[in-house]
């Protein structure tokens, strides 16, 4: 089985006015094809900055080590090449979906823009795929949801929308940053079951997840 993601000796530093804070220091791990890997640690130990560093989403920091995706070092690739990977080959589900989604753009437009940015499809084709994804996530009345805004939804619905966005371009790797932390226990279980079912289906479809 091939390694899909390799993180080697990752070090992330944030500078304050007086000193340097080591958010991550010497972290190494890898993810194989078809594998689910969980990173566990207390609040503030560096889980989120590690997730964000894979897609170069951290700001105001110094980073060392290297990150390989499908055997290619993506630690210092150009922005143009990185944009081809973000949301397309590697997708991320953020910890707080309500703040990650754009509050002034409809759910439908956000999904359509992501799909069109990576796939050669028409607006209508992107819309049809968006509706199908929302429906697949168990969101009621997906046609109506396309016209609504994130602030009109519950935390559970927004999390399902985020998962739909992450799946919209059939990524090879999905990074989920505490995707159930802001949800109640019942919704947490529902979201985890969605992940299990998606892994099963996507492994059968693509041979990897």
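-> sequence recovered:
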């Amino acid at each position: 089985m091939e390694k899909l993601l390799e993180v080697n000796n990752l070090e992330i530093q944030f500078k304050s006015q007086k000193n340097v804070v080591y958010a991550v220091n010497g972290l190494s791990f890898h993810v194989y094809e078809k594998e689910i890997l969980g990173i566990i640690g207390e609040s503030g130990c560096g889980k989120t900055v590690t997730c964000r560093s894979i897609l170069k989403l951290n700001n105001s920091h110094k980073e060392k080590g290297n990150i390989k995706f499908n055997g290619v070092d993506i630690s210092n690739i150009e922005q143009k090449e990185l944009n081809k990977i973000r949301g397309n080959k590697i997708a991320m589900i953020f910890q707080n979906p309500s703040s990650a989604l754009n509050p002034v753009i409809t759910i439908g437009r956000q999904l359509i823009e992501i799909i069109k940015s990576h796939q050669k499809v028409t607006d209508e084709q992107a819309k049809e795929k968006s509706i199908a994804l929302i429906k697949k996530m168990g969101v009621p009345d997906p046609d109506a949801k396309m016209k609504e805004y994130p602030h009109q939804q519950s935390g559970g619905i927004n999390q399902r929308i985020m998962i739909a966005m992450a799946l919209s371009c059939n990524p090879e790797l999905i990074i989920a940053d505490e995707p159930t932390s802001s949800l109640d226990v019942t919704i947490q279980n529902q979201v985890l079951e969605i992940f299990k079912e998606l892994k099963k289906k996507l492994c059968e479809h693509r041979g990897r997840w």
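Residues 119 and 134 are 18 Å apart (CA to CA).
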